[in-house]
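Field notebook, page 148. I keep forgetting to write these up properly, so this time I am using the form the group agreed on. The chain and the ligand, copper (II) ion, are recorded exactly as supplied. Prediction of the bound pose follows.
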Amino acid sequence: MNTGRKLLLLIATPLAMVACATPAAAAVINVVKTASCGCCGKWVEHMRKAGHDVRVTNVADVTPTAHKLGVPDDLRSCHTSSVGGYAIEGHVPAADIARLLKEKPKAAGLSVPGMVAGSPGMEMGANKPAYQTIIFTRDGKRKVFAQH
Ligand SMILES: [Cu+2]
């Protein structure tokens, strides 16, 4: 290898590493789930693939965390996360979270209520019913944030 190429590699390699480690939407996401929840783990993988720093805490019961973060009971799912001061309930797609963090609306968080087939972490082949991501506030207001 000639000196010129070596030099180029020395410069290019750290740049490439920085580009991989810090995508634009990278954030710290704290996930609270039960140890036995398989689809929760798959959602964690989905978020990690999107470049986020996902930190998982396993608990016996997710409900106290969901209540603390202001998730209404009828919008509950299998796991509760927090990112940038927002609650993220259930299998919310990474793209919705990126938009939330960019737009920073006045809200408590996002939810994909229940366990919708076809949402990230709930892939079931061709079974992909339409579903909505709901945005909600602490005082009980909610509306559709995204249609999938
Ligand atoms: Cu789930």
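OBSERVATIONS:
- The pocket of copper (II) ion is lined by residues 39-40, 78, 91, 115, 122 (CB under 6 Å).
- The domain at 27-147 is CATH 3.40.30.10 (Glutaredoxin).
FOLLOW-UP: compare against the apo run.
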